[in-house]
């Protein structure tokens, strides 16, 4: 859980840094003279909004004016002043919403990946492995009494699995039992016979 929280906070920091608003707004005048297309250089990362129309011809975003990261363009007689960057940028709210959506998607993907990994691990480490691996070389019992954490030495070397669960509490790998170097740990009431293959 700590690793997941740290990952989400890291992603949030990156996203909001990438979508942050420029603190200073610049005003750029761009004019379509004689109805011709014209572009003016800008830094559009902080967004652009039309702050003052200068022409009698209409200026409509996406029709007679628009912008990208490097320029604002005007066409068909639109002449206007544009605010570039700053907190009043029309795209700043959109950027914040986009950052929140992306952050939510990243968090959902991380959680889904973790759940899928846990599901695969549960399928991998269950008490049916005795049938798949053949007869174990050795078995030993390890018990979590009163829901306490307990460690048991592994007799010999090899792959360790739950051979037979004897508790009513489930023995789930990485949740209520696991392997730590040359010993098995159990917790939360997991009691089982373990096999070394």
From TrEMBL:
Signal peptide range: 1-25
Keywords: Signal
The keyword Signal appears for this protein: yes
InterPro entries attached to this UniProt entry: DUF3011
Domain of life: Bacteria
Pfam families (alphabetical): DUF3011 (PF11218)
Keyword Signal in record: yes
Protein name: DUF3011 domain-containing protein
Lineage: Bacteria, Pseudomonadati, Pseudomonadota, Gammaproteobacteria, Lysobacterales
């Amino acid at each position: 859980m700590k690793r997941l929280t740290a990952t989400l906070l890291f992603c949030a920091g990156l996203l909001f840094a990438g979508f942050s608003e420029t603190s200073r707004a610049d005003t750029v005048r761009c004019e379509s003279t004689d109805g011709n297309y014209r572009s003016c250089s800008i830094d559009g990362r902080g967004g652009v909004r039309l702050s003052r129309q200068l022409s009698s011809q209409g200026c409509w975003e996406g029709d007679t004016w628009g912008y990208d990261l490097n320029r604002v363009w005007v066409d068909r007689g639109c002449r206007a002043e544009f605010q570039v960057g700053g907190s009043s940028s029309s795209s700043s709210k959109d950027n914040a919403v986009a950052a929140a959506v992306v952050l939510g998607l990243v968090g959902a993907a991380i959680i889904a990946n973790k759940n899928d990994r846990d599901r695969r691990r549960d399928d991998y480490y269950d008490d049916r492995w005795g049938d798949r691996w053949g007869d174990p070389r050795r078995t030993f019992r390890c018990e979590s009494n009163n829901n306490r954490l307990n460690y048991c030495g592994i007799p010999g070397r090899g792959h360790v699995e739950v051979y037979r669960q004897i508790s009513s509490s489930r023995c789930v790998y990485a949740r209520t039992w696991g392997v730590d170097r040359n010993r098995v740990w159990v917790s939360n009431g997991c009691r089982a016979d373990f096999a070394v293959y």
